[in-house]
């Protein structure tokens, strides 16, 4: 019980850290240079610039309806954490928005604003929250149409950046688009972490040796099954999941002088259950 409480408390604290990073990026770097984030935050920035009302006010007003829509689809826990994140994010943004770091180089503002924003949003996502209702709407729409979530978000952002081009100039729209792609990539790394899974498919006639080396050096078990090549005939196929940090060691194993193997590596979007096996202690 105590362990779950501490884990839950830590997740909320890290969401606050993520909100602070995102708010600092938008308030002190992006808004002073008229560079937009995507989604609801981008719309809020435009409305804030046009009406001179604080951007944080629009973020709350525009996001709450999406949270209500996503309550049944995404669950109570997600909605509570997302509401908490949006309130904290908006509150911090209210105080950071008047700040201006006076970054005259727009490209620097674009790059570092995107990096910091991506770190912040990535932390919020990693620990169960959300800062933008656009993705919630995209999930709901994707279930009713043939479009994927990513396609719907991209279509929304193209419309937002196009509008920003007419309002603030198309150079700002292009800077905003670059910020979006930087942010998107950084979110990937932060939300999935360096522990992002990689699936290795190894075709070899030395399966026992390779499987033993993978177990001893990486602590991973390997699933094996029989295969048949059109030229080489019967062979063995090994399958294992590793992290990107372990790729180098796997390459060393399959590239050893006494090993012959054909290997393909693919990304794994999610891993459920434990895929690390500890060797039993002796004694």
Q: What's the structural blueprint in terms of helices and strands?
A:
Elements: H1 2-30, H2 39-51, H3 55-69, H4 71-74, H5 76-96, H6 106-126, H7 133-144, H8 149-168, H9 170-192, E1 197-204, H10 207-218, E2 223-229, E3 233-243, H11 247-254, E4 261-268
Antiparallel strand pairs: 1-3, 1-4, 2-3
How would you portray this structure in words?
- By secondary structure, the protein is of the alpha+beta class.
- The protein has two domains: 2-192, no CATH class; 197-268, Alpha-Beta Plaits, CATH 3.30.70.
- Helix content is 63%, strand content 12%.
- Strands 2-3-1-4 form a four-stranded antiparallel sheet, with helices on one face.
- Helix 2 (39-51) packs parallel to helix 8 (149-168) and helix 8 (149-168) packs antiparallel against helix 9.
- It is elongated and about 70 Å long.
- The two termini are 32 Å apart.
Termini, distance in Å? Answer: 32 Å
Structural class: alpha+beta
Report the principal-axis shape: elongated
Rg over C-alpha atoms, rounded to the nearest angstrom? 23 Å
Sheet with the most strands? Answer: 4 strands, antiparallel
Helix content: 55-70%
- Give the uncertain stretches in residue-range form: 277-283
Overall mean pLDDT stands at 84
Number of helices: 11
Physical arrangement of strands within the biggest beta sheet? 2-3-1-4
- What sequence of helices (H) and strands (E) makes up the elements? HHHHHHHHHEHEEHE
Beta-strand share of residues? 5-15%
Strand element count = 4
- Tally the structural domains: 2
